[in-house]
């Protein structure tokens, strides 16, 4: 999907943003930042965690999230470098499969008390453990319910829902599990629920975004992940390239780094005053000589990384999807860092 003609966000009309990525790419950080960006200008977003890691709570520096929707942040336009406007809100939910199954049993089979009795007997934990497909049905179902939910006034409860989804290698099956369930259950509440969930997931109101780094393995997994999503008929969103380091050498330096530049570097160090102004030329040269090889080695390593990243960008460009680059935050990701990344996503049109 291309940027909208009026310069608005690329995903106008999308309500359910599914964020996946290879482990270590920072998908939870990106999901949290996207939720903040989407909440700007007076909107309400819900950030959902499905893997039970409590990564959202850790990022926002709050206590472990219960199985209930809880406000975790406010976002003023000024925090994202936007002109004045209403402050938005971010809510969070850590979905617990056991609680979700109890809710499901009560909603569709009116087994409120019986469900609690089953929980006491350990049947609920047993069911969600031995049937991972059931677990995924419950997780996706809860996310889709939140995306569709309306309040008493008929308006949507949330302007957007962001799901911190399983890793890229598992996300297609995770999202497509209700298709398999609908194929097994040909009628009844389970079939109807599975069909309703897949209508949301396959609709234009859903987009699956993949997070990657400019490294070979994450990029290859992203390429494979996009192929799997497309083959399954699931709506592919954008590519978020995370932790991008700025280039330290210009194009000419990158091309020339393998040449013999000892004399040039030595002279540059002298001109910078590292050799001392009052020494003889021989003393100055002896002072800067030990610095030459380490500096040249670092330049070669940096040049190799720049060229590798260029190749990875070319591979990602072949996917023909919107791409958003986020900077590497040297001090790690704290709450301030999340707002900074949210501002970047907003500026680049992802929200």
Quick recap:
With 351 residues, this protein is α/β, with parallel strands linked by helices. 51% of the residues lie in helices and 15% in strands.
Shape: elongated
In helices, the fraction of residues equals: 40-55%
Distance between the termini: 13 Å
- Number of helices, where a helix is a run of at least 4 consecutive DSSP H or I residues: 13
Spans with pLDDT under 50 lasting ≥5 residues?
1-6, 126-130
Q: Specify the CATH class of the largest domain.
A: Alpha Beta
CATH topology of the largest domain: Rossmann fold
- Give the strand order, joined by hyphens, for the main sheet: 3-4-2-5-1-6-7-8
Give the C-alpha Rg: 25 Å
Assembly category: single chain
Give me the count of strands: 8
Mean pLDDT: 83
CATH superfamily of the largest domain: P-loop containing nucleotide triphosphate hydrolases
Q: Structural class per helix/strand content? A: alpha/beta
- CATH architectural name of the largest domain: 3-Layer(aba) Sandwich
Instruction: Encode the helix/strand succession as letters.
Output: EHEHEEHHHHEHHEHEHHHEH
Query: Number of folding domains?
Result: 2
| Biggest sheet details | 8 strands, mixed
Task: Determine the strand fraction and express it as a percent band.
Answer: 5-15%
Structure commentary:
With 351 residues, this protein is α/β, with parallel strands linked by helices. The protein has 2 domains: 16-245 and 328-347, Rossmann fold (3-Layer(aba) Sandwich); 251-306, no CATH class. The protein is built from 13 helices and 8 strands. It has an 8-stranded mixed sheet, sandwiched between helices. β6, α9 and β7 form a beta-alpha-beta unit. The longest helix is centred in the C-terminal third of the chain and has 37 residues, at 281-317. It is elongated and about 90 Å long. Mean pLDDT is 83; it is low at 1-6 and 126-130. One of its GO terms (molecular function) is ATP binding. Pfam families: ArsA_ATPase. This is ATPase. It comes from Peterkaempfera bronchialis. Residues 16-198 form the ArsA/GET3 Anion-transporting ATPase-like domain.
């Amino acid at each position: 999907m291309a940027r909208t003609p009026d310069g608005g966000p690329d995903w106008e009309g999308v309500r359910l943003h599914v964020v996946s990525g290879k482990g270590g790419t920072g998908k939870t950080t990106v999901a949290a930042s996207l939720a903040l960006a989407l909440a700007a200008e007076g909107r309400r977003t819900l950030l959902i965690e499905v893997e039970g890691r409590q990564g959202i709570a850790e990022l926002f520096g709050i206590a472990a999230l219960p199985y209930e929707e809880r406000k975790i942040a406010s976002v003023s336009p000024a925090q994202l470098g936007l002109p004045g406007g209403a402050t938005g809100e971010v809510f969070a939910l850590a979905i617990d499969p056991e609680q979700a199954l109890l809710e499901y049993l009560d909603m569709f089979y009116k087994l409120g008390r019986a469900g609690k009795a089953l929980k006491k007997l350990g049947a609920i934990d047993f069911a969600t453990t031995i049937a991972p497909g059931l677990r995924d049905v419950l997780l996706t179902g809860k996310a889709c319910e939140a995306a569709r939910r309306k309040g008493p006034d008929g308006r949507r409860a949330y302007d957007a829902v962001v799901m911190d989804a399983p890793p890229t290698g598992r996300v297609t099956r995770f999202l497509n599990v209700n298709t398999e369930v609908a194929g097994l259950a040909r009628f009844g509440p389970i079939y109807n629920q599975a069909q309703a969930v897949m209508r949301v997931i396959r609709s234009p109101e859903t987009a699956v975004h993949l997070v990657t780094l400019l490294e070979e393995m994450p990029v290859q997994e992203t390429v494979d992940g996009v192929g799997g999503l497309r083959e399954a008929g699931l709506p592919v969103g954008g590519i978020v390239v995370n932790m991008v380091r700025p280039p330290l050498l210009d194009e000419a330096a990158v091309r020339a780094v393998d040449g013999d530049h000892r004399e040039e570097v030595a002279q540059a160090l002298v001109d910078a005053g590292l050799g001392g102004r009052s020494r003889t030329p021989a003393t100055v040269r002896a002072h800067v000589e030990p610095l030459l090889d380490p500096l040249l080695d670092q330049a070669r390593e940096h040049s190799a990384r720049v060229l590798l990243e260029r190749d990875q960008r070319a591979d990602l460009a072949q996917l023909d999807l919107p791409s958003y680059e986020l900077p590497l935050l040297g001090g790690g990701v704290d709450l301030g860092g999340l707002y900074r990344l949210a501002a970047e996503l907003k500026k680049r049109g992802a929200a």
